[in-house]
Design brief:
mainly alpha; 0% strand; globular
Length: 564
């Protein structure tokens, strides 16, 4: 037992020294977090229904606005480069900066939370324009509860930032898993008596767990709480880096609030449907986009040599696209099976709702590669202490998104999927502009070469097309509808409809989805192997290295790596 405990401590306290190894740890934990996140949404839908689920999500709009703009911006991208530089010089000074940032952040958030909490009804009356007065009142009350949890995240995200700066990625990546578990437990335990307030109580439970798991590791590394609210050079530097980020995130929160405004006009449940589709497309974007980007930020922050910086950035971007582009095609082709298998079909989510969410998902999915690239490109700018350029393009993105949403919804009267389309079009322009400017800033002509990414796109289109045809070929419902294309490719004397799969049943749907996915992955990997993809080779090397590391070895004394 003592040996098991020592091994557990070693794993928790160990450092991840390469981008792929760090991203591997983050990815595994993000998979768990996303799984529990989907379970969380399923549980809330199951216990509360789609309309209440939508109201619950709307309640996050105001707390998230305050937290994201005034807290998360400073504690994520702005703190890590400053803390990393101080850590190389003096461990004591680095932790002192982190402690002061916590205190100042809490003070600012507390004041804003009180003000916005008082006027929450007025805020939701405007933002959730389509809700009636009783729904607005309920949402504003739930929002006040969520504010308390967001205050805990002030401390938690500072600790997350400093742990990641110290190359400890496991515990920060595990914290969101516990957060989701807290919401699930709160909903299951209290939903019968508290209704919509049950998941709000769960948010508080989850926030406590999110913070609690990180404190021991941070304390071991040197973090200490203090009562010092004075600024110093480190805090002011964080503030300077965070100031443009405030504008960036404020623009993003305006965009998110606009989504609530436009969707609430259509129906109460629409905002919930939009978020369900977004959560599905966010899984690959978070898994392979955010995980690689977060891991790369620490390395980019340390690299002063331009050639090394350029190599790290391009390698990470191409590896990211190699993983994310085929998944985007997968989401587009299998949108309906994915929604059905994830959230099921019931009174809370009938067939029409499933189809609607699937269509929204397909429009979001097209933009997944760009969203993933944005996570990395933005961090590349922050690593070079340039927060101004990403802010400018974020504002452009938000303005363009709002204009497109207004045109699509208010003028053209398009369905809910038009909001997803507006987001995808805008992020494409944003990422393209940021990349071109970054190429001129840190690279030469070779830097603009994205041949591996272009290959990933072509191979994904080919494998996606084959997946789509296979899906239709083996789907019984398609044969029942007598889709014309089948008659053109399948001879009439072959009674194919007798051995197709009836996707009305869950096990049959799982089987068909598995067949189509396996085929698509096999084709994509084969094409990558035939063209000698370096990204595929790097992935295989990482898998082999992990296999060696996990293989049984001779017993030897356990040692803990020295702290940074």
């Amino acid at each position: 037992m003592e040996d098991l405990i020592r091994r557990g401590k070693k794993i928790i306290n160990s450092r991840q020294n390469t981008i792929l190894s760090a991203a591997g740890v983050i990815t595994v934990m993000i998979i768990l977090s996303q799984i529990f996140g989907l379970v969380r949404q399923w549980v809330i839908l199951k216990f509360l229904g789609s309309d209440t689920f939508s109201l619950y999500l709307a309640a996050f709009r105001l707390p998230d606005l305050v937290f994201e703009v005034f807290a998360f911006g400073a504690f994520s991208s702005a703190l890590i480069p400053v803390f990393s530089r101080y850590l190389r010089r003096s461990k004591k000074e680095a932790w002192d900066v982190a402690s002061r940032v916590v205190n100042i952040g809490l003070l600012i958030f507390l004041g804003l939370a009180i003000v916005f909490g008082i006027f929450s009804y007025q805020f939701y009356s405007v933002v959730a324009f389509g809700f009636d007065s009783s729904q607005v009142d309920l949402v504003s009350k739930v929002a006040r509860i969520i504010f308390f949890a967001e205050g805990l995240f002030i401390v938690s995200y500072v600790i997350t930032g400093v742990l990641e700066s110290s190359r400890r990625f496991l515990v920060p990546a595990l914290a969101p898993v516990l957060y989701n578990i807290g919401i699930i437990l709160g909903t299951i335990i209290f939903s019968r008596t508290l209704g919509i307030y049950a998941p709000a109580i769960g948010v508080i439970i989850g926030a406590v767990m999110h913070l609690g798991i990180q404190i021991p590791v941070a304390y071991k590394l040197g973090f200490r709480f203090s009562t010092n609210f004075k600024t110093n050079n480190g805090v002011r530097e964080v503030g300077r880096l965070a100031a443009p980020r405030f504008i960036d995130l404020a623009a993003l929160q305006i965009q998110k609030s606009a989504e609530l405004f436009f969707s609430s006009i259509m129906s109460v449940a629409s905002y919930g449907f939009l978020n369900l589709a977004y959560s599905l497309q966010a899984i690959p974007a978070t898994l392979f986009g955010v995980s690689l980007a977060k891991a790369a930020l620490v390395s980019l922050s340390y690299q002063e040599d331009l050639a090394e910086f350029r190599k790290t950035f391009l390698t990470t971007l191409n590896q990211m696209m190699f993983l994310i582009v085929p998944i985007s095609a997968f989401l587009v082709v299998l949108r309906i099976p994915i929604v059905r298998l994830t959230f099921g079909t019931s009174q809370s989510l009938d067939w029409n709702a499933t189809v609607q969410i699937g269509i929204i998902l397909s429009y979001f999915a097209i933009g997944v590669p760009m969203q993933s690239a944005l996570a990395l490109i933005s961090r590349a700018y922050y690593a070079k202490h340039d927060a101004k350029t990403p802010v400018i393009f974020q504002v452009i993105d938000v303005v363009l998104t709002l204009v497109l949403e207004a045109i699509f919804v208010l003028v053209m009267h398009l369905p809910l999927w038009s909001i997803a389309l507006a987001n995808t079009l805008a992020v494409f322009i944003q990422v393209s502009g940021l990349y071109v400017i970054l190429a001129k800033k840190i690279g030469d002509g070779r830097f603009l070469s994205l041949t591996p990414t272009i290959k990933s796109i072509v191979f994904s289109i080919l494998s996606g097309g084959l997946m789509y045809f296979t899906l239709k070929l083996f789907d019984r419902s398609v044969w029942v509808q007598k889709i014309p294309i089948l008659g053109a490719v399948v001879p009439e004397n072959i009674p194919f409809e007798k051995f197709v799969i009836d996707t009305r049943y869950t096990l049959s749907l799982v089987l068909l989805t598995g067949i189509v996915t396996t085929l698509g992955v096999a084709v994509y990997v084969l094409l990558s192997w035939l063209t000698k993809s370096e990204e595929l080779a790097a992935l295989i090397r990482l898998i082999n290295r992990r296999r060696v590391e996990l293989a049984p070895a001779k017993r030897e004394p356990l040692t803990v790596e020295p702290e940074v």
